[in-house]
C-alpha cells in the first residue's frame, strides 16, 4: 500500500509525468472568444502607470496592469509558492494534488498534469495563470496563451531559485512584504545548511524517486542540488533525460554509499518501505551493508517550494549519519 502511495505521489508531482504528458482536449472556441479582449488588455498594460513587470522562469516578460486578484495554478508546486508569497486570498483554482497548505485542498479543480478544463478556467475569470513548463504539454500551454490571459512560467531549477520565485510572485500579487519574509526565511535556512554540510566528506547517493520503473534524477534537477548542499554526490548526475530510468544492475555497479527514496508522508529516515527493502537482496551493496537506506517525504524534496528546506535538512542529517557509520 505504501509503495503504491509513493508511486501515485511521484506521478502527481510531475517528475515522471512530464515524460508522459498528453495533449489537452480540443480548445473551446466559444470560451476563447469570451476572453479575447484579455489579450489587448495584457498588451496595453505595459503602458499602465502602475504596471508590474517581471521575467518568468522561461525568460518571458510578464506584465500586469495591477496586482493579480484572481489566480489559477496549474502545478502543485506553483500553488505552494503562491500561498507562501501571500497569494492565498487571490487563488481561485488549481490542479489536482495541489494539497498544501491545507486551504489549497478546497480550491476548485481545473484539471491535472494530463489535461486542463478550459471552460472552467475561463469561467473562473483569472487575471493570471501560473504554469509549469514541463508539467504541461506544449499544446496545453499554447491553448492557455490563446485565451489572452497572462501566463507566468514557474520552474525553479536550483535551490536559490525558490526565493527568487517568491520575490517575483510577491510583486505580481502585490504582497511583497509577505513574499520577502518567506524568501528571507528560506534563504537563511538554506545558507545555514550549506555552511554546515556542503564541505563535509562526500557521500555517493542513489536518489530513487520511483520504483516501477526504477527512476532517478540527474544533476540538472533541483533535488540533485540538495545532495550537493549536503555534501552528497549523485551517482547518476550525468544521465539524460532529467528523470532517467535505471536498472538494478546500474545501481549495483555504481555501488552508492546511501540510497535516498522519496515516499509520501515519510517522516523518519529509517522508515520501512518496500521500495527500499528491495535492495536488501544485495547485502554487499554499500548502502545496504552500512544500513544507509533513507526515506524522505516526496513533497519536501521534489517540489521546489520553501518546504524544500525541510527535505534538505533531513537529507543532510541522513548523509551525516552515513558518514558516522564509516567509523
TrEMBL record:
<dbReference type="InterPro" id="IPR002491">
    <property type="entry name" value="ABC_transptr_periplasmic_BD"/>
</dbReference>
<dbReference type="InterPro" id="IPR006311">
    <property type="entry name" value="TAT_signal"/>
</dbReference>
<keyword id="KW-0732">Signal</keyword>
<dbReference type="InterPro" id="IPR050902">
    <property type="entry name" value="ABC_Transporter_SBP"/>
</dbReference>
<dbReference type="Pfam" id="PF01497">
    <property type="entry name" value="Peripla_BP_2"/>
</dbReference>
<feature type="domain" description="Fe/B12 periplasmic-binding">
    <location>
        <begin position="70"/>
        <end position="327"/>
    </location>
</feature>
<dbReference type="InterPro" id="IPR054828">
    <property type="entry name" value="Vit_B12_bind_prot"/>
</dbReference>
<feature type="signal peptide">
    <location>
        <begin position="1"/>
        <end position="32"/>
    </location>
</feature>
<protein>
    <submittedName>
        <fullName>Vitamin B12 transport protein</fullName>
    </submittedName>
</protein>
Amino acid at each position: 500500500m505504501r509503495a503504491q502511495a509513493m508511486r501515485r505521489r511521484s506521478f502527481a508531482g510531475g517528475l515522471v509525468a512530464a515524460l508522459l504528458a498528453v495533449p489537452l482536449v480540443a480548445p473551446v472556441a466559444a470560451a476563447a472568444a469570451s476572453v479575447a479582449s484579455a489579450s489587448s488588455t495584457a498588451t496595453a498594460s505595459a503602458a499602465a502607470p502602475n504596471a508590474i513587470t517581471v521575467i518568468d522562469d522561461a525568460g518571458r516578460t510578464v506584465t500586469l496592469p495591477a496586482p493579480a486578484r484572481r489566480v489559477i495554478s496549474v502545478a502543485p508546486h506553483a500553488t505552494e509558492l503562491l500561498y507562501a508569497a501571500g497569494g492565498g486570498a487571490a487563488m481561485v483554482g488549481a490542479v489536482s494534488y495541489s494539497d498544501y497548505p491545507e486551504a489549497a485542498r478546497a480550491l476548485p479543480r481545473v484539471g491535472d498534469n494530463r489535461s486542463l478544463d478550459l471552460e472552467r478556467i475561463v469561467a473562473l475569470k483569472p487575471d493570471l495563470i501560473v504554469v509549469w513548463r514541463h508539467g504541461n504539454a506544449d499544446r496545453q500551454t499554447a491553448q492557455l496563451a490563446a485565451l489572452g490571459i497572462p501566463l507566468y512560467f514557474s520552474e525553479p531549477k536550483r535551490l536559490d531559485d525558490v526565493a527568487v520565485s517568491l520575490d517575483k510572485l510577491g510583486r505580481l500579487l502585490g504582497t511583497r512584504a509577505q513574499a520577502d519574509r518567506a524568501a528571507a526565511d528560506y534563504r537563511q535556512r538554506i545558507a545555514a545548511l550549506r555552511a554546515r554540510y556542503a564541505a563535509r566528506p562526500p557521500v555517493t547517493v542513489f536518489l530513487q524517486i520511483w520504483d516501477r520503473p526504477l527512476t532517478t534524477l540527474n544533476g540538472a534537477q533541483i533535488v540533485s542540488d540538495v545532495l550537493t548542499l549536503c555534501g552528497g554526490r549523485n551517482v547518476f548526475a550525468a544521465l539524460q533525460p532529467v528523470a532517467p530510468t535505471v536498472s538494478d544492475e546500474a545501481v549495483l555497479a555504481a555501488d552508492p554509499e546511501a540510497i535516498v527514496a522519496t515516499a509520501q508522508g515519510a517522516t523518519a529516515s529509517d522508515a520501512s518501505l518496500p521500495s527500499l527493502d528491495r535492495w536488501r537482496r544485495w547485502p554487499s551493496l554499500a548502502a545496504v551493508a552500512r544500513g544507509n537506506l533513507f526515506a524522505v517525504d516526496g513533497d519536501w524534496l521534489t517540489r521546489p517550494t520553501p518546504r524544500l528546506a525541510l527535505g534538505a535538512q533531513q537529507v543532510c542529517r541522513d548523509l551525516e549519519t552515513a558518514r558516522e557509520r564509516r567509523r
